[in-house]
Amino acid sequence: MPEFMMPVEDLSREELREIAADFMRKFNSLCKQALFYPEEHPILQEAINEFRRFLKTFLENYGRFLINFFEGQIFLYNIFVPQAATSFEKTISDLEEKGIKEITFLPGTSKKEIYNFARLVNEKKEVIESTGGIQAALVNNNITHIIVVEAAPSERDSGKEHLEGDSSISELSFETYNMAIQAIKEIANDLLTGRPIIVTQARRVVDSMVEKVLQNPDALLRLSILKNYDEDTFYHSVNVLILSITLGAFIKLEKIDLTNLGMSALLHDIGKIKIPVDIIRKPTSLTPGEWEIIKSHPVMGAEALLTAKGLNKISIAVALEHHMGYDKRGYPQINLIDRPHLFSRMVETVDIYDALTSQRAYRKPTLPDNALRLIYSQGGKKLDPLLSSAFVKLMGIYPVGSTVKLNTGEYAIVVKPGKEDITRPKVLVILDSELKAIDPLQTVDLLKEARLGGKRTTILESIHPLLIGINPEDYVVYTDAQH
User: Which of 125, 178, 262, 402 could be disulfide-bonded to 368 (CB atoms 3.0-4.6 Å)?
Assistant: First the structure.
């Protein structure tokens, strides 16, 4: 087996093929034994234990195990693995026929969940559909640590009305998001290889994002729900960039200030690139020594940016100060600084929000509305009171990406904050009260519905998406942002 402590993308094709083949062999054996033996039979129990032993290494080192299927091919952690599907064509075909395109195993996956999942996979497609579909079956079988992403129905291709007015806007936003990921990766690579840091491409991307925020802040804001645990530093940096410039536009910063803020936000965590990945992703508590290493990343980041060409010096200050805190009780402790820079205080606010709402090795993501309550409670303490209040107003009680239960019993994803009434945002209804998929997807303005006497008028509560078997990221391209 390969050395799993290295990043997934650094594994060779041979190592990835070995992992894929090992998974498929153990998964096939598990499903076969679950078909023929009762749950407590020793042969089936051994297959379950063998499968759990396989998962253990990945869950400890990467926080999850992710496998994808597309047109008969296998992907691991979204990386294509050539020739990995050989000898497993029938199994992959069966999974794809049931609409399964991606399976994620999370820490805490129990033996019972593995058994129930194997039994579910063995069911005929018609049986699964008759009971409400895969997502309903996962919920009914108490499978909360195994996440299944289904292939989008072809009918959804005709549902582009859920995109904001002009679909090209959404496509360009996604393209810009991916360009930002690539830009921060290149800067990180320059830092690791000792080459001079060049920020020209990053500046172009940030300029483009500033333009999009000024044109349509809601369209870009929705992209901040995208997460990738395997590349959390890069995705986190881009999400903090989006949230920061959206907050900056909300408090009426000038365009040039938004660009400088955006560059600072994108680069705020660059010092983490030098922190060992086993410390960054450690699933248990850090030792005092490891915590000191983590706390060194602001200084390392600021030092790395000192020689970057074409970079505004404010970015250096933000890299240094973004954990210092409004009350200066954070780190590093620098007595010469009376108060962290405005941009540092802004980045710290949104940095905490994105970190709380993201999956980490040591905890599950916090519900967005709960994260905002914490942000608000820290105003005047760790966070700037005016900025924390402004951020909560910007995001609304139910932030974009929140999964909520409506008064009708249906489930929806918030796609746009409520401006007139923060308790009634615009939502995308995705599941009915029995957890069956809504087709086509329906975008509803709860405030407008209430005024017109419609049935969908209020939100009952926020729901953790894992509990109903969905991932809000899968619906981001279907959201509606018409004004």
Answer: 402
